[in-house]
Amino acid sequence: MVTTMLAACGLDCATCELRLAPTDPEAARVVVAWFKQQGWLSEAEGMAEVLERGMFCTGCLGNRETHWSSDCWILACCVDQRGHSNCSECESFACDRLVAWSGQDESYSAALARLRELRTAAT
After folding, report:
1. CB of 115 within 8 A of CB of 95?
2. Strand partners, 6
3. Which of 66, 78, 90 is nearest to 8 (CA)?
4. Distance between alpha carbon 104 and the CA centroid of its chain, in Å?
5. I need a surface site. Which of 22, 42, 67, 118 has the fewest CB within 10 A?
6. CA gap 2, 13 in Å, rounded
7. Longest dimension (CA), the chain
8. Distance (Å, rounded) from C-alpha 20 to C-alpha 33?
9. Using an 8 Å Cβ cutoff, are 20 and 27 in contact?
10. pLDDT tens for residues 27-55?
11. Closest Cα to residue 54, out of 44, 34, 40, 68?
12. pLDDT beneath 70, residues of the chain
């Protein structure tokens, strides 16, 4: 497992379109289309507005003004309250709340598995 950038929750930032959008035209196209579908951008708006509004991500340890979900409970618990870079470093890993979160989506389940691999490798 090689991950160059990992979210606090274990999501792999290397493939995240919200992080890649400012520098990758294909990721930007996908993000802009999704934002328009969600009603967050008008049909006339595009990547310039995404950049202007900070609607992208620089990672959990990056600038919070450009973090996709700066109010994320995992980010607050892991980074802000406990000072970790990801949940695998926590003495309470894997807490019930993280396990419940991982059951919501296949990518979240993969994120928890990634964190478990990190935890195992660290011991």
Report:
1. no
2. 12
3. 78
4. 15
5. 42
6. 12
7. 52
8. 15
9. yes
10. 999 999 999 999 999 999 999 999 998 88
11. 68
12. 1-4, 66-67, 70
Structure tokens given for 82: 């406990």
Amino acid, res. 68:
W
Alpha helices in the chain (DSSP H): 17-20, 25-38, 47-53, 73-75, 96-102, 106-122
Report cis status (omega within 30 of 0) of the bond before 8: no
**Cα–Cα dist 67/64, whole Å:** 5
Q: Give the C-alpha distances (Å, rounded to integers) separating 7 from 25, 37, 112, 117.
A: 22, 25, 11, 14
